[in-house]
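In the design runs reported in the main text, the only information available to the sequence generator was the tokenized backbone. The following block is the verbatim input for one such run; it is reproduced so that readers can re-run the procedure and compare outputs position by position.
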């Protein structure tokens, strides 16, 4: 017979409570979790809020490489032998984050199959997203990349209803995320608004027509660079 403790293990409950090798962090807007170059010794799980990942080059140029939300891990590179952080993580709103030491992660992954399944599922999903982002950068125009990024940030579901992007993301940040200039993002945002693909009144709201345009490869999203 199996171990009863394993059968009753709840991965989400585990991630939501303080315990051996775990701590709950409450972060204010613009507070860093870790900075590029810090020692990598913990994995983090977002319970609430959104975290921005940025990387600074040797020439001090900063790029936004991702925005993560509830249910996502970050800092898992320490599990793969990375001694130092390769990015900076910053709260873009009030956040609640679970910090799990590298040793506690190893023990839980070994002892709790339910947690291992959750973590592996996250890694596989993230890997697929990285592949999609690479294809997006290689083959799609900046206009289409912006449309896809807006849909991802809005977590646009199958309901087909308008979805707001919260907290509000600046045009500078959007430009960094899709590899173009702020002026081009502004141009595309104005175009999307005129076409009825998005609404903008203090916050960006993504309409179902934008999803339709991306899925059906509408001409308005085929503009060359």
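Verbatim output:
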């Amino acid at each position: 017979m199996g171990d009863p403790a394993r059968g009753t293990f709840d991965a989400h409950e585990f991630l939501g409570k303080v315990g051996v090798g775990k701590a709950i962090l409450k972060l204010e807007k613009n507070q860093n979790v870790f900075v590029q170059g810090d020692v990598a010794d913990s994995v983090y799980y977002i319970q609430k809020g959104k975290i921005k990942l940025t990387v600074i080059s040797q020439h001090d140029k900063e790029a936004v490489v991702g925005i993560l939300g509830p249910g996502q891990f970050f800092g898992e590179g320490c599990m793969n032998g990375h001694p130092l952080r390769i990015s900076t993580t910053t709260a873009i709103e009030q956040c609640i984050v679970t910090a799990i030491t590298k040793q506690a992660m190893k023990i839980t992954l070994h002892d709790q199959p339910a947690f291992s399944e959750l973590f592996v599922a996250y890694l596989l999903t993230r890997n697929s997203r990285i592949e999609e982002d690479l294809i997006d950068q290689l083959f799609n125009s900046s206009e289409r990349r912006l449309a896809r990024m807006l849909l991802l940030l809005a977590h646009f579901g199958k309901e087909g209803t308008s979805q707001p992007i919260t907290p509000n993301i600046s045009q500078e940040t959007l430009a960094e995320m899709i590899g173009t200039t702020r002026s081009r993002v502004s141009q595309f945002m104005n175009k999307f608004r005129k076409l009825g693909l998005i609404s903008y009144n203090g916050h960006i709201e993504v309409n179902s027509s934008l999803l339709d345009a991306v899925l059906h490869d509408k001409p308005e999203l085929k503009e060359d660079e």
